[in-house]
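Hello Y.,

Per our agreement to keep a running log of every chain we model this quarter, I'm adding this entry. I've kept the format consistent with earlier entries: sequence first, then predicted structure.
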Amino acid sequence: MKLLKISCLLGLLTALFLFANIAIAADDCLSCHQGKTPATVALWQSSAHGDKVTCVECHGSDHAAMLRGEGLVPATVCGKCHEQAFHEHSASRHGMGLHSGWGCTRNLTSRNPAECRFCHEEGSTLPKTTVQCARFQMQSAEMREIGCNRCHRVESSCASCHTGHMTDAKIVRDPGVCAKCHMGPDHPQWEMWQTSQHGTLYPVIGAERAPDCQRCHMSKGTHNVSFGITATPGGVPFPEPVYSEKRQQMLTICSECHAKGLAQRELTAADAVRVQSTALTATADKIVWDLYDRGKLQPMPADRPPHPLSGPTLVTDSQLLYEDTSAIERLLFKMKKYDWAKAVKGAYHQNPAYAHWYGNAELKMDLIDIRSEATRLLGEKAAPLESRPVTKAAGIEEELRVLKKRFERKELTEEVYLQEKAKLLDGM
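Predicted structure for the entry above:
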């Protein structure tokens, strides 16, 4: 019995010692930071966390790691208290921020070892994601941090939207918080909204009457920002029944202010713009691949620095680069990455100038430039490349080689390949 009492007393003393250490650590934070970063301390003290959550509970107690820049608070820490918000966030497009923006930098001479923590748990060699991003890998360590990670960190950092030490909901209810990332040539959603009818009404009549980013995409306070979105960022529609469910979500939002029929017509028209815009980029894509098959790109992929993921070959998908390529690929990048987004997202955000002049018109002028550059590279004053007739002068043997390459990369079915091959052979 006496031994049991001694054991319990030791346990109590141990717990008190650990608690004292935590308290001391928290006090140490304040005693130092009240002098060094007083504004940060004041923000924390005035927040909802001020009298409930200590510095150590969020940042940990490894001060050396913090000095190395490793004191960022991951979303999983916030999720311990804010479970519903964390799960909604994780299920949304924001929960895939790292997946779409990162790429392993272990083989880069400019790598920053601190980047490992974004793809690996501490002490683990297993990656949390296998997705790669060629454009990310091509940048300097500084540009990867400033120009890429500051936005794509939204997956793992609630502070991306909520800031580090404030808890005032006004911060995240202001559509300006979305503008930090959702702007610029590749996805100018904020500019589209701001200059649309919705955006011009917002500062006059307020969020209660004029829809903003949060009202449409974070309905009723959900942290799932994919609410009502029916396609991937690249414009691929979700499969049924997900598509219908998402479309109904957005129609419900639109119907708070508009007749459902009007909302349906607007969204259906935007769907058509998406299909039409994608068809224009697909036409340009074929022209560039045809030049590659004929060895006409200047320079060819084999004669320039290799693509960081695919090596010395042509890449025109989502890993299309804007550096170390040919002039015509640079035009294709602008067309697919910038102008397609402006046309399509401009249509869905009811912004006529973005949908037409910044988007649709630029797409069509891009195609003019691409056709012109293709003609120059071929050294021919002929019809547009994709409709150029095959003649003996053009070389049927070359056409057969090109046709075979298209079949090998599964651009053509076997049936179509054999039909096209027969037509060429009949012309010999």
